[in-house]
Structure formats: C-alpha cells, structure tokens
Design a protein that fits this description.
With 171 residues, this protein is mainly beta. It is 0% helix and 52% strand. The protein folds into two domains: 7-69, no CATH class; 83-170, Immunoglobulin-like (Sandwich), CATH 2.60.40.
Length: 171
C-alpha cells in the first residue's frame, strides 16, 4: 500500500525482474499483491492536481533501499513527496540539483511538460542584468554558465510552484 494518493512505482525484484505498480487513477483499492521477498525501488512518479492542471514528478536514480515483503502482511510503501531544490551560485554560473526522496534525481512536469527552471541575475536595486533557463532532467541536475559580472549582487532562481512541498537549499 502506498503512502501517496496517486502515482506509480517501479520495483526490481531480487531475481532482477522489473514490476510497475500504479495508483494513477486514484481508485479506492490501495493494496497490490506481490510475492514475498526483497524488492528495490528503482523510480517513482507522483501525481497531483491544482487549478485544473495535472502535475507530476518523476524520480530516477533512487538509492537502492530494500523493501522486504512478508507473506500475509500489509507493507506501506513510504515515498516523501517533498521536492528539494539545491542551488549553488558561483561567480561564473548557477548549479541546481532537483531531488526527490533519498536524493533521487527528479523532474517536475506541468500538464505533461517538464517545467523549466528560470534564473535572473540582479544588480543594484534589483535591476535585471541577465536571465535564462536551466535545463535539468535525468539525474535531477542542471548548470547555467554566464560571464562574471561585478555588478551582479544576487542570482535568483525562479520555479513555477507545483502542488508538492518544496525545500530550497542554497550554498
């Protein structure tokens, strides 16, 4: 049984076979029967609706934490929906990591399209000195390079807000 309302997971059984389990329709039946044994979470997809738009996050490169299933016992598959956005501003660029549970690489989608991460370079008094978009995806990371500019006082990362919790970390 999943901890989330709508989504899907990809599990790898101990024999190497992949299993996709889905709860994307939001139906009432929450349990899925699997053979007892050890499984690994390979990836996941969580869905949510906001303002008549479907959003989803897709995670890959998850840490291979074992999920042990026992006969005749219900196990809850816990997935934290929090999106972590790590920003590292340097003199010549902005590095961004978009991460899900256990630092899995994460992509964010709105109406089926990956949303871009936009940035602005701000000078004195908030004047825009440059702007652009960062491409990110599988693995969750992205990088924007720019020419050093002594007038830049701040780099601002702009992210369309999905209906999932967001934690921002800047270093």
């Amino acid at each position: 049984m999943p901890s989330f309302e709508r989504g899907a997971v990809l599990l790898r059984a101990s024999d190497g076979h992949l299993l996709r389990l889905t709860w994307e329709d939001g139906g009432a039946e929450r349990t899925r029967r699997l053979a007892p044994g050890k499984y690994e979470l390979v990836g996941y997809r969580l869905l949510a609706r906001a303002a008549d738009v479907t959003w989803h996050v897709a995670a890959t490169a998850t840490k291979k934490k074992p999920l042990v299933l026992e006969a005749e016992r219900v196990t809850t598959l816990e997935i934290d929906p929090t999106i972590t956005v790590e920003e590292r501003v340097q003199r010549d660029g902005l590095q961004v990591a978009v991460l899900g549970q256990d630092r899995a690489g994460l992509s964010i989608y709105r109406a089926g399209k990956r949303i871009p991460l936009a940035f602005r370079r701000l000078g004195e008094g908030g004047a825009v000195r440059g702007e652009g978009k960062i491409t990110y995806g599988l693995g969750g990371g992205g990088w924007a390079r720019f020419e050093p500019d002594e007038e830049v006082r701040e780099v601002e990362l702009r992210l369309e807000t999905p209906p999932f919790p967001i934690r921002r970390v800047r270093s």
